[in-house]
């Protein structure tokens, strides 16, 4: 009797469990969610996405303007001078505000306390778990870069190594015209302008990029056909 009751109960249990499983994907199907990533990864990637696509104009403008001014300062002055001036400017603001609030409290005979107490009480310590998570994520990219470096320099694929050689040859001309700070300034301008332009003219850009990709692919195939090592590998 116990076996028969268990047998009669098992279909209901399996049906309830199978019915509970489909509800899980639907629960996370909000429009702005990133189902393929974790909550923290999704939050950081979505924040960067919103930043470079100018979703919040004030926030993006502040970040863009601050970093651009810093890079322009580094182009004109040394790193030590720029860092020193930034720290002096920040200290001037905080010390002036601290003295101002102290004077106001003394005149009004109020006891509001330290003006930055809310920020001083914030816990900014980095836990060991968070540190290990960041290190593990960094190690994934480091190992991938090491494998790619070995693959390119030991010529696992002749075409890829030739592409790197041509790119580095072009970069010698770029380096003769621009220095590192200038390239960083250009990179920032591109990061904060290209995504929004692409989003606006996506159809036209994809059309021309597809044409260029097809032409590049045909040229690479012609080069690979003339290289004996690549031709033998494809024939096998």
In short:
By secondary structure, the protein is mainly α. It is built from 12 helices and no strands.
Strand content: under 5%
Characterize the main sheet.
none
| Approximate helicity band | over 70%
DSSP strand count: 0
- Overall geometry comes to elongated
Order of helices and strands: HHHHHHHHHHHH
Give the termini separation: 66 Å
- Give the mean pLDDT: 79
Radius of gyration: 29 Å
Residue stretches low in confidence (pLDDT < 50, at least 5 long) are 1-38
Structural class: mainly alpha
- Work out the helix count: 12
Topology:
Elements: H1 2-20, H2 23-27, H3 39-52, H4 57-76, H5 79-108, H6 117-120, H7 128-153, H8 158-177, H9 180-191, H10 194-200, H11 202-226, H12 228-235
Helix pairs in contact: 4-9
Report what the structure shows.
The protein is an all-alpha fold and 236 residues long. The protein has twelve helices and no strands. It has helices at 2-20, 23-27, 39-52, 57-76, 79-108, 117-120, 128-153, 158-177, 180-191, 194-200, 202-226, 228-235. α4 packs antiparallel against α9 (180-191).
List keywords for this structure.
single chain, 236 residues, mainly alpha, 12 helices, 0% strand
């Amino acid at each position: 009797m116990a076996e028969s009751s268990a047998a009669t109960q098992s279909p209901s249990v399996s049906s309830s469990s199978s019915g509970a499983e489909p509800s899980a994907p639907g629960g996370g199907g909000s429009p702005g969610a990133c189902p393929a990533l974790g909550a923290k990864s999704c939050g950081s990637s979505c924040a960067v996405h919103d930043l470079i696509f100018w979703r919040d104009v004030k926030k993006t403008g502040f970040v863009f303007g601050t970093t651009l001014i810093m890079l322009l300062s580094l182009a004109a002055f040394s790193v030590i001078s720029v860092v020193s001036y930034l720290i002096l400017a920040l200290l001037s603001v905080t010390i002036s505000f601290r003295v101002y609030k102290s004077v106001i409290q003394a005149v009004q005979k109020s006891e509001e306390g330290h003006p930055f107490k809310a920020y001083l009480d914030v816990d900014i310590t980095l836990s060991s778990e968070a540190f290990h998570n960041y290190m593990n994520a960094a190690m994934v990219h480091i190992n991938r870069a090491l494998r790619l470096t070995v693959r390119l320099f030991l010529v696992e694929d002749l075409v890829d190594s030739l592409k790197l050689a041509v790119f580095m040859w072009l970069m010698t001309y770029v380096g003769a015209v621009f220095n590192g700070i200038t390239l960083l300034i250009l990179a920032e301008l591109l990061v904060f302008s290209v995504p929004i332009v692409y989003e606006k003219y996506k159809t036209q850009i994809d059309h021309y990029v597809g044409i260029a990709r097809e032409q590049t692919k045909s040229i690479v195939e012609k080069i690979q056909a003339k290289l004996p090592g690549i031709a033998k590998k494809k024939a096998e």
